[in-house]
Amino acid sequence: MTIAVAVSGGIDSLYALLTLKEQGYDIFALHAHFLAPCKEREEAIGAMCATLGIPFHAVDLHEEFERCVVTPFMDEYIHGRTPNPCALCNATMKFGALLREAEKLGAEQIATGHYAVLENHPVYGRTLSRGHDPKKDQSYFLSLVPKQQLKKALFPLGKKKKEDIKAELEERGIAPAYPSESQEICFVPNDDYRAFLINRGANLGSGGNMELTDGTVVGKHNGLWQYTEGQRKGLGIAWKEPLYVICKELEKNVLLVGPKAELLSTGCIVSNMNYLVSKKHWGENLLVRTRYRQQPIPVTISEQDDMLIVTYNEPQSPPASGQVCCVYDKDLTVLGGGIIKSSIQ
User: Fold this and answer.
1) For the whole prediction, is pTM greater than 0.85?
2) Which part of the chain is CATH 2.40.30.10?
3) CB 276 within 8 A of CB 336
């Protein structure tokens, strides 16, 4: 079996490359230019692979990345939502376009440096579950990848911890081409999405009123795209108690704010579900994450018009529309993932 190993030049993909090579697999390294091609970066990664005696290929996918990830990212903000480009990139690019290029080069599977586990389950079949490093687990970001594409994936780092990987590479004297950690959103300079959207000339809409739930105007917002549900800082409101963003009323161009007592959400509506495990196997003890850093929380789930109605066992801070809702069973196997359409207050 021939395996393509997606390499960025960093620690994680280097370790995945070494692990599979030492396990005796027929492998080659594959680097994708998701941004405008950088010859210097390609040459540095190619030199690293040559030192290890591993064949290296690079493919230019920056136009497809622009179409499949960057443009939807901008569109979501234009429509007042908060997108998750990393989850979309995994589904459309890393296990979509890049997998396609790997197969053209003769690979049957693609391995990446993701911290998640793929195993065979006696009932579910091939499943995705949380990585063993709680600080680096990326199962949340992988929940939108279709099941058929995950069947062709390998995650050599799934049961490893980042600190152990770093220590092992240092002990062996093997250095990555680019040792620094990648930034949060690879195509947004300095993680400043506001500047990125403005510089791209996105039609972001005008300012409007900030209002309490009773209609009292307490200030002005600078465009709904700049705010996220649950946000407290940066509102610029002088009020008798701290105010939070409760929701964005797009039709009225109103930012609804209120005290913490009004903030809590009882659930969310989830659309565009990607089922990794058939709904008939889900059972009753379900958990979800509606943001990356959140610990899985217990919920009950029902279906309505091709959407999931997620009800929290205990009220939570409202999730941002446009973000991912990842559903787990009690053993933290990923059952599926979808896009949060709205919070339920």
Assistant:
1) yes
2) 264-344
3) yes
Residues of CATH 2.30.30.280 domain(s) within the chain?
205-262
CATH for 2-190 (3.20.20.105, 1.20.1630.10, 3.40.50.620, 2.60.40.420): 3.40.50.620
Report the distance separating Cα 156 and Cα 118, nearest Å: 9
The residue type of 337 is G
212: pLDDT strictly greater than 80: yes
Q: Which helix (H) or strand (E) holds 341?
A: strand 334-344
Residue list, annotated binding site for ATP? 6-13, 113
For residue range 88-111, list pLDDT tens digits in order. 999 999 999 999 999 999 999 999
Tell me the angle at which helices 11-22 and 162-172 cross, rounded to the nearest 10 degrees: 70
The answer to whether 128 touches 121, Cβ cutoff 8 Å, is no
pLDDT reported for residue 182: 67
Query: What average pLDDT is seen over the chain?
Result: 94
CA 241 distance to own-chain centroid? 34
Nearest to 137 by CA among 332, 335, 338: 332
- Fold of the domain built from segment(s) 264-344: Elongation Factor Tu (Ef-tu); domain 3 (2.40.30)
Q: Identify the weakest region by mean pLDDT among 150-159, 174-183, 203-212.
A: 174-183
User: What is the tens place of the pLDDT at every residue in 141-161?
Assistant: 999 999 999 999 999 999 999
Task: Tell me the pLDDT tens digit for each residue of 63-87.
Answer: 999 999 999 999 999 888 999 999 9
Only one residue has tokens 């195509």, namely 187
Give the residue numbers annotated as catalytic, written as ranges: 89, 186
Residue range 205-262 in CATH 2.30.30.280: yes
- If DSSP codes are grouped into helix, strand and coil, which group holds residue 218? strand
> Which long-range contacts (C-beta less than 8 Å, at least 24 apart) are formed by 167-176?
168/15, 169/11, 169/14, 169/15, 174/14, 174/18, 176/9, 176/10, 176/11, 176/13, 176/14, 176/48
